[in-house]
TrEMBL record:
Top-rank taxon: Bacteria
Residue span, Aldehyde dehydrogenase domain: 14-465
InterPro entries for the chain: Ald_DH/histidinol_DH (IPR016161), Ald_DH_C (IPR016163), Ald_DH_CS_CYS (IPR016160), Ald_DH_CS_GLU (IPR029510), Ald_DH_N (IPR016162), Aldehyde_DH_dom (IPR015590), LUC3-like (IPR044086)
Name recorded for this polypeptide: Aldehyde dehydrogenase family protein
Protein's UniProt keywords contain Oxidoreductase: yes
The UniProt record lists the keyword Iron-sulfur: no
Family annotation (PROSITE patterns): ALDEHYDE_DEHYDR_CYS, ALDEHYDE_DEHYDR_GLU
Classification via PANTHER family: ALDEHYDE DEHYDROGENASE-RELATED (PTHR11699)
Family recorded in the similarity comment: Belongs to the aldehyde dehydrogenase family.
Active site (UniProt): 244
GO molecular function: oxidoreductase activity, acting on the aldehyde or oxo group of donors, NAD or NADP as acceptor
The entry's keywords: Oxidoreductase
Amino acid sequence: MNTYESLLAAITPTSGETRDVFDPATGELIGKAPVQDVAALEAAIDKAEAAQVSWAALSDDERRAYLHKAADAIEASSEALAELLSREQGKPLNGPNARFEVGGCVAWTRTPADTPLPTEVIVDDESGYAEMHYRPLGVVGAISPWNWPMMISIWQIAPALRMGNTVVMKPAETTTLSVVGLIAVMNQVLPEGVLNVVPGPGSTVGDALTRSPKVQKIMFTGSTPVGKRIIEASANNVTRLTLELGGNDAGIVLPDVDPAAIAEGLFWGAFINTGQTCAALKRLYVHDSVYDEVVENLVNFAKNVPMGVGVEEENVLGPLQNRAQYEIVDRLVESAKASGARVVLGGNPDHDAVGNFYPTTIVADIDPQNDLVVEEQFGPALPIIRYSDLDEAVRLANELEVGLGSSVWSSDRAKALEVAARLQAGTTWINSHGGLHPMIPFGGAKQSGYGREFGVEGLKAVAEPHVISG
C-alpha cells in the first residue's frame, strides 16, 4: 500500500453498504467508504476483547516494538496516506497540513512507545511501603473527528496499545477513508484483533460503542454537545472517559508587542488547517494602542497565503471539509457584517463555486458579544476585538463556558506569564498559539472536556492505577 492507488484499492469495500466520498475542494468522486452497523461493531468489540488477553500478556518492550513497527509502516506509506487525506479532508499536501499530519502520526506513535513509565514507589519509610502500578483497562473505544482524522486517531490508538489495551475505532462519517487507510497500514504489522475500525453513523454505531459494557474506556475528540451525550450514554457502565471537546480560544495582545513580528504567529495560530482546529485562535483581543498596526500587519500577511485545491503543491490553505461547516462560518460572518463590524479581508465567498472554499476572513471593530466572537466558528474567520483595559480583556476571554487553549502576546515575558496565570484554559501559550508536543499534556478546562493526552499523563489515562501496599 505504498501508492495512493494501491491504498485506495486495498480499503475499497467489495460488499456491504457504502457511501460516495467526494473531494471537498473539487467535488470529484474519489471513492466509496464502508458504512457498517451495530452488529459489525459488536463483532469488532468481541474480537478486540479476545485479542486483548494475549496483547496484555506481551511484555512492555514487545508492545513498544510493535508500535515502532507500526510507525515504520506509516512512514513507508506516508505519501499515499497524505494524498488520501488531502483528497478526502481537503487540506493541502504542504504547509502544516496533510504531509505534516502524517508525519505527526509517526511521531505520536513513536513517542508513547519510547516514554518510560516505571513502577512508582509512593512510600518507603518507617510508616510502610507502597508502589503504584499501571494495568491495562481492556478494550478502548476511540471516536475521532474530521478535522485532523489521522493524527487524532493516533493520539487515541498509540497510548492505548502501549498500555496493553486493544482498540475499536469509530471514525468521523465525513473522513472515513483516511482513518480506515491509516489503520489498514498499521494492521500490516500489528497482531490480529488488536486494532479494529468500524465506520458508521454516530447515532447508531457511535452510541452503541459508548454504551457497551465490554468497553472500559472511551476517548472522544469533538463537540461539547456530543461529549455530553457520551457522558450520559456511558454512565451506566461507569466507563472511563477522556473528552477533548469544543473550544473558542482567546488570545490577548498586550501593548508592548511588535505588530510586524507577531503577524505570522497570529496567522497560523488562527488559520492552521483553514481554521478547522479545536485549539486554534478563534477570538483575538488587542490593546487599543497597537490595534490598527496589528490588524494591518496580520492582513498583509494573510492576503498572500495561497488557498486552493489540496493536491496542488503551491497551496497551504484548503476548503472547509463539509458544507455544513461552510454554512456555519458564512452565517457567523454575515452576523458580524450585519452588526456593523468592519471586514478588512475576505468575507465575500462565491456561493456558486465548486468546492467548500471560504476565503480567509479577518473582521475588525466587532462587538465582543457578537455571534462570531462568542460562538466557535471552526473556520477561516477571525474576529479582532479592541480593548483598553486589561482586566476587561481577561474577563471577556474567561467568560465563555469553554476553555481549551489561550494565548498571550507580549515582549515582556514576565508580564505575559502574569496574564497567562489569569486565563481559564487547559493550555496557555506565550507568543504562539496551538503548538502541541507529544510529551506535553493536552486537554481542556470547563466545558472543553476533561482528561489529558500525551506524555506520561496520557499513558496513565489509558491504564488502571493499582496500588500495592505492604
